[in-house]
Amino acid sequence: MGQYIRRRLLQMIPLMIGISLIVFMIIQAAPGGPEEMLLETGRFIDPQVIENYRHRLGVDQPIYVQYYKWITAAMTGDFGISFQTTRPVMDMILERLPATLELMAISFIFAALVAIPLGIYSALHPYSALDFSGTALSFLGIAMPVFWFGLILQLVFSVKLGWLPVAGTSTVGDTSFWDHILHLILPSIVLSLHYIAGWSRYMRSSLLAVIHSDYIRTARAKGLKEHLVTIRHALKNAMIPVVSIMALNLADLFSGAVITETIFAWPGIGRLFIQAMYARDYPMLMGILMMGSFMVVFFNLLADLVYGWLDPRISYS
Hints:
Layout: H1 2-29, H2 36-39, H3 47-57, H4 63-74, H5 89-124, H6 129-143, H7 146-160, H8 177-210, H9 214-221, H10 226-263, H11 269-278, H12 282-310
């Protein structure tokens, strides 16, 4: 196991370098640049001023020179200086990271607590009214645009009913824990909806396949009670593909938070990414995208380890 983890961690180094090169080239190939912020003011600006601005930021150099400077600095933990704020990119990311991790954790836990029991019940009571309802809601959750669902929840529960805050992390003048929880409810529901829909269907399909296996019939023939057969014998094996999918989706939560944080003005990395994208803040975009790429690679490794833990037949030698 330890040798396998070390080998995978070593493989991550060239993989992350390759990802950084591709991401850097895509960002550089996008139309416009940081000087666009000057031109959008609507005033005439001397072209020499624009050239001086580009030179000061270093974006007038060849792409391979810019990438070499960035990658050599990034290997030491320095992701550059933000064009917008002239602050270190890493400092700004670390400031916003706790808010994003909090939203991701709450959404992940909420999705798991809803999806797994729903999937288990649907598998144990196939073609029941709740099973059909769960299937319909799953299709709806997968197909529904996140931004539209978020706006509908804001309109209904915040504007019309006034039960929950519209956006932000706290009410002005109220720093209580309960007020913060109220601000978490809507964004966590929006972020978790898609995963509740998918995980519940995975759980249903996996458990349906397991409970019709020979060893489950043998356990029933021995006189074990149905709930013991389900919990002790069927559920662990059924959870193998589901847990793998959940581990892989942890990285998707990070990218999904971009839209959710923007809708609900949540001060996390997702909202910071949108601001950097509009400002053509290359260092900030690179820092956030590389963090997201690292999370995808890391959670892929985590999914493999969890899969081996659940299934003893898996060998990492």
